[in-house]
Amino acid sequence: MSRPAASDSLEIARAAADAMWANDAASHALGVELDEVGPGSARARLRVTESMLNGHGICHGGLVFLLADTAFAFACNSHGPETVAGGCDIVFVSPARLGDELVAEASERTRFGRNGVYDVTVRRADGSVVAEFRGQSRTTGTRA
Question: Percent of the chain, pLDDT > 90?
Fold first, then answer.
């Protein structure tokens, strides 16, 4: 089986992202922005607002996870078929604070059969790491 040309792969990634982004109410509601998508990769960003702070005055870990999960979702769906998370975990490295702009960069590590492994690093605008996320994907067998 032949692989699509690089330009075809990019078009597939963009079409899949456009379809998903149009229906991603959670990301829109929280102010997530999708910066970039390519075959097996994606970058998303989020500015930490006051409503995102937890009882310690730092960004709620669930929102850091949401940003990483969003980048992961766009990266693993970039090949066209509908793909969902089969599992993921996150390591919180340092706290995000009010006003921080967080950037999540997802990259495909490997795909095999209907499965994939993706790494996402969440950083502040200054490049310091906030979290490391690893997601395992599973293609459902349907087209997005």
Answer: 83
Pairing mode, if any, of strands 101-112 and 81-92?
Answer: unpaired
Correct CATH for 6-143 of 1.10.760.10, 3.10.129.10, 3.40.630.30, 2.60.120.1440: 3.10.129.10
Mean pLDDT of 92-111: 98
Q: Is 44 in contact with 67 (CB distance < 8 Å)?
A: yes
Sign of the alpha-carbon dihedral angle for 69, 46, 132, 66? negative
Q: How far apart are CA 89 and CA 69, in angstroms?
A: 10
Q: What does the DSSP 8-state code read for residue 51?
A: G
Confidence of residue 123 (pLDDT cuts 50, 70, 90): very high
Handedness of CA 67, 31, 124, 39 (dihedral sign): positive
